[in-house]
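**Folding the chain**
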Amino acid sequence: MKRKHYLANIYCGKVAQKYGIETAIDKQLASTSLYLSVEGLAGDECADKDYHGGLDRALHQYPLEHYAYWQEKYANRAVDKANWQAPGMGENLSSTGMTEDTVCLGDRYQWGEAIIEVSQPRSPCFKLNKRWDIETFSVDMQELSRCGWLYRVIRPGMVNVDEPLELIARVSNAMTIREVCKAFFGDPLNEDGLLQLRQQSTLSDSWMDKVSQRLATKKVENWSFRLLGHS
């Protein structure tokens, strides 16, 4: 069970007016030990607490490997190739060797003094479109399940980049992050997929509420504002 993954870097950000929006997506390298509370890393800020941050979204991890894919996909766009690198997705944790195919919902990791638990995939939003100056970047990220994932903090404590993420627990009915994305985003009204998601006791409250609403109403919530910034 115990598998260790070393991080490439840790990042924190301050809220600023950038890309025509108020955002903390531009993060800076954190090279010292930091305190990780239930709300996230010390010094890391969040511009819109209705849709970002919170107990189920205290940390965002993004695979470093994905940047090469995005650079190739958008090779003909005006974005400077040098920009296709961490932390361009606003991630706190940057890593190699951990992807949506190997990380599962509910995975618990010991990280330094802290214990963190995977709570949901990241929900791509229009701020990524602004960041990259690509109108449908969030849509592409969602459709391709290259979203990264979020954590809740089970036990706060001091952490740093030299401490590995050590997998200490995995639920018995674990779904990979890609499987969760496929059920939630890819086939959002498939009853079998929704029922499987409803069995995931570690799924974030906000996602679980949406799963229950879909099962009850047979309708999908409107994604337009989240993905594109307008109705």
Observations:
- The longest helix spans residues 205-217.
